[in-house]
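Input sequence (188 aa), recorded before submission:
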Amino acid sequence: MATTNDLKNGMVLKLDGGQLWSVVEFQHVKPGKGGAFVRTKLKHVLSGKVVDRTFNAGTKVETATVDRRGMQFSYKDGPDYVFMDTETFEQLPLTPETVGQAANYLLEGQDCTVAIHEGNPLFVELPAAVELVIEYTEPGVQGDRSTGGTKPARLETGYEIGVPLFITTGEKIKVDTRSGDYLGRVNS
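Predicted structure, C-alpha cell format:
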C-alpha cells in the first residue's frame, strides 16, 4: 500500500478490483480553496488504454509488485518473441500481444526491459530511442530540403515510418519508440 503522495512515473497500481495500471504522469495540485488532489494519467497494463484519473491527496492506493528484468531479444519463434534474461540466461517466450508496439523496433540482440507481475509477463519496455537502418525508401530528388514534407521509409524491422525527403536507403536513423517519429540521422 502507498498513498497518492508517493506516486512516481512507471509505478504500477492495482485499481478497480485488481486491474493493473501504470502511472504515465502525475501532478500534485493545491488549489487556493479546498483540499489538495493528485491528477494522474494512467495506462492499463494489458490493454494499453490511457485514462485521466484524479485522487484526493493522501488517498491509499494498492501498488503491484512488478519485477523489471533486463532482457535481450533473441529470435522470433513462429508468432512468439523469445527473450533471454541477461543475468540467468533463461529464455522467455512472449506473445505478440505482450510485446505490443515494441515489435516494430526490435532487432535480434537488442536489450530491453520486460515487466513481470506474479510470474506473468506484462509488457516490454524499449529505450526511448533506437537506431535502425532504412531498408527501403524512394530516392530523393534534387531540391529536397530538410524542411517540408516526409516520405514513407521501411525500417530493417519491416515497420514503416515517415522520414524527411533527403533520407536515402541504407542510412542509419534514430527513431522514437514511443511515437514512431524520426529523430535524426546517426553519424557512423
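Checked by second reader. The helical segments are 96-99.
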